[in-house]
Design goal:
Elements lengths: L1 H15 L17 H4 L4 H10 L1 H4 L14 H15 L10 H17 L5 H4 L9 H19 L3
Helix pairs in contact: 6-8
């Protein structure tokens, strides 16, 4: 009986490897990208790409283990959730009020140390922000929030 259950579980595990989620890797830069509409200093672009874009843009760099299901499904769900919350690649499509609020949240989450997520930085050590990098992101986000609030 145990052998049949184990064989059945193994069969399911093998079969689910063929069911792959759609990848978050768009070919072209979005015309709605935040950097196309607002001044984003080079150092901030680098930080965002390194620590934020995998979950908060249309350009995810997938590690090898996302090819193993159900890990790939879980990770893709996490990415979709992150993009629903904030997508830097589609930032220009947001209302003025939402843009300002998102920048307020960026500053707040980085300030509290809630972003990038510890579950992400556990594997992606390069995404860990130094105090100086966190301060730069916070300052930029607050400045951009003020700029957006003053837009007509």
């Amino acid at each position: 009986m145990k052998k049949k259950i184990l064989l059945g579980l193994l069969s399911v595990l093998v079969l689910i490897q063929f069911i792959r989620p759609q990848r978050n890797q768009f070919a072209n830069a979005s015309s709605n990208d935040i950097a196309m509409h607002y001044q984003v200093p080079e150092n901030i672009v680098g930080i965002l790409k390194r620590a934020c874009y995998d979950c908060h843009s249309n350009y995810t760099a997938y590690p090898w283990y996302t090819n193993i299901q159900p890990v790939g499904w879980w990770l893709q769900n996490h990415i979709n959730e992150g993009k629903r919350e904030l997508n830097f690649s589609e930032f220009a499509t947001y209302t003025r009020k939402r843009k300002a609020h998102k920048m307020e949240e960026v500053a707040e989450m980085v300030e509290k140390g809630e972003m990038p997520l510890s579950s992400y930085t556990w594997i992606h050590k390069e995404a860990i922000l130094t105090k100086e990098e966190a301060a730069a992101v916070i300052s930029w986000a607050k400045d951009l929030q003020k700029q957006i609030e003053q837009e007509p």
